[in-house]
Amino acid sequence: MEQSLSEFMAGNLQTFWEMTGFYNATWEHFVMLAVGIFFLYLAIKKNFEPMLLVPIGFGILIGNIPFSAGMEVGIYEEGTVLNILYNGVSAGWYPPLVFLGIGAMTDFTALIANPKLMLVGAAAQFGIFGAYMVALALGFAPDQAGAIAIIGGADGPTAIFVSSKLAPNLMGAIAVSAYSYMALVPVIQPPLMRLFTTKKERLIKMKPARAVSQNEKIIFPIVGLLLTCFVVPTALPLLGMLFFGNLLRECGVTTRLAKTASNALTDIVTILLGMTVGASTQASEFLTIETIGIFFLGFMAFIIASSSGVLFVKLFNLVLPKDKKLNPLIGNAGVSAVPMSARISNNLGLEYDPSNYLLMHAMGPNVAGVIGSATAAGVLLAFLG
């Protein structure tokens, strides 16, 4: 009897041991756990976009707890809780909900008052198409190259939406790359802005924007939807929700819906999106040579996008009257990291002239960048989807 009990205990302890994370752990798991902890450190201690990096960082920890096959807890195992939550990412319906919230939060007044700023937002999209060509040259398939290139828009939801359609197998790496560079905007952009501008250009003061009527604010999302989606119908899920959210904000009769879209709904979707994107970075799927290439191309795309906006403003100033010149420091805001890039433009402007407030001017190309990256995504989906 004692022998049988000891054998029973030994057998069950062995089975239990083989089920633990300690038994199933590999060095790849520990690398990814370290990455998750690093993301949490950046978010909590350095205050780098905590609303994004805390869910993603903790999601990386969740996704890289080692377990044995068949336990039905992994994000890629059909029917698990994580897999069901991940459906919003893989099927692409979290990003449009985020765009609904962005639309409800965004004031397009700066763009309506000065429509030529739309060109700055468009110029920043060169990063997307430049990275696409480089990715093709490096041997990525056209659909994979398109999904990677969208990182240059500095727009996490758009990157997820495009990659879910064009390259689902690369979505985890693309999403983490896009959100990482969004969080690092305050680190990456200022050196580029200083590099491509002179002190004289940084001191340019722009005229205050004209007043915008409430009717103009109401008409803008309707006309914006019709113009953009007639040209690029494939961008409808993103731009449709963006402009719908903005109409809720501006029409004056749906205040409660606008508040829900911009607060509770956006917060819920951000939590689920960030956590599941982080959890999708399982070591076996994430630690590959392709991932390194994606991060490199994403970084290059973001550099090109930020630089293109600044250089375009410098070029544009050559044809603008002296009293209507733009400060090139707003060019970086052409990427769609709202409102981070606009704040950087403002902070750098104040550094060189404490009376030169550029925030409202920079918001023009910043919100134009949101429209531009979604439109670029639609173009890629139309040709590659």
What features would you describe in this structure?
- The protein is an all-alpha fold and 385 residues long.
- It has one domain.
- The chain has 21 helices and no strands.
- The chain has helices at residues 2-19, 21-24, 27-44, 50-63, 81-90, 94-105, 109-113, 117-123, 126-137, 142-149, 156-166, 171-183, 185-195, 199-202, 214-231, 236-250, 255-279, 283-286, 289-317, 340-352, 359-384.
- α8 packs across α21.
- The relative contact order is 0.18.
- The mean pLDDT is 89.
Task: List strands and helices in order, with pairings.
Elements: H1 2-19, H2 21-24, H3 27-44, H4 50-63, H5 81-90, H6 94-105, H7 109-113, H8 117-123, H9 126-137, H10 142-149, H11 156-166, H12 171-183, H13 185-195, H14 199-202, H15 214-231, H16 236-250, H17 255-279, H18 283-286, H19 289-317, H20 340-352, H21 359-384
Helix pairs in contact: 3-4, 4-12, 4-17, 5-17, 6-11, 6-16, 6-17, 8-19, 8-21, 9-10, 9-19, 10-11, 11-12, 11-21, 12-19, 13-19, 13-20, 15-16, 16-17, 16-21, 20-21
